[in-house]
Write a structure and sequence with these properties.
With 261 residues, the chain is an alpha/beta fold. It contains nine helices and seven strands.
């Protein structure tokens, strides 16, 4: 199996993209540690994985808190003795708002989880990977970190994750530690389905400016993460891979009434 005997931490692995990655990696032989702010959700996934003969561990963690992140790493090392893969997936989003209307508390919460959380986890786990001279970090960013949208907290936080990816890849490359990012487009996670049901996202307008005319599934992100975590990507570091059915390539086409053959 591709990840046989590898130890992978997946933050925010209790649902959505993180859950899909945890299940995919487990199916390829990895030992899985799910760090999630919802320990019940994390434990439920780990129980499922154990039925697949996967060794796993669930840890309650708020990635914006250094003490929680340190405990996540320490419990992983105590259970498995090493950390081979870190998936920085934990994150939240926001409703579209002007910078004039978004309160500072909402901005701070998104920034703390989406960027600070990725920073803290990378910093702590990176120390172990640099010392052992091997490891893979995969940051789950967003195409909203690549294109402009009325998401004045979420978009810049994900842009920061993308730049952090490049910086860490450059700093840690000589230690055989690879750092890459995945930038999902609109992905049909439970969170996204809920936003669509509440009228907070309009699927029609999304699909109109998506060249492939469909949304991404969590399994699509998991498949990309598996490739980047595997030896097939042993010379790939510092990149951000959009998985978005072409949305980030659309540019201004939709302004012209979707002019396409």
């Amino acid at each position: 199996m591709v990840l046989s005997d590898k130890v992978a931490i997946v933050t925010g692995g209790g649902m959505g993209i993180g859950e899909a990655i945890a299940r995919k990696f487990a199916s390829e032989g990895a030992k899985i540690v799910i760090g999630d702010v919802n320990p019940q959700a994390a434990e439920k996934i780990i129980e499922d994985l154990r039925k697949m003969n996967c060794q796993g561990l669930a840890v309650a963690v708020d990635v914006s808190q250094k003490e929680d992140v340190d405990r996540l790493a320490d419990e992983t090392l105590k259970a498995f003795g090493k950390i081979d893969i870190l998936i920085n997936n934990a994150g939240i989003t926001q409703l579209p708002k002007s910078i004039l209307d978004l309160d500072i508390e909402a901005w701070q919460k998104v920034t703390d989880i989406d960027y600070k959380g990725t920073y803290l986890c990378s910093r702590r786990v990176g120390k172990e990977m640099v010392q052992q001279k091997s490891g893979v970090v995969i940051n789950i960013a967003s195409i909203m970190g690549l294109i402009s949208a009325p998401l004045v907290a979420y978009g810049p936080a994900k842009s920061a994750v993308i730049m952090l990816t490049k910086i860490l890849a450059t700093e840690w490359g000589r230690f055989n530690v690879r750092v890459n990012a995945i930038a999902p487009g609109y992905t049909l996670t439970p969170l996204m389905r809920g936003m669509i049901a509440r009228g907070e996202r309009d699927p029609k307008s999304i699909l109109e400016r998506t060249p492939m005319g469909k949304m991404v599934e969590p399994e699509d992100i998991a498949n990309a993460a598996l490739f980047l975590a595997s030896d097939q990507a042993k010379c790939i570091t510092g990149i951000t891979l959009p998985i978005d059915a072409g949305m980030s390539a659309d540019g201004a086409w939709s302004v012209f009434g979707g002019y396409r053959r």
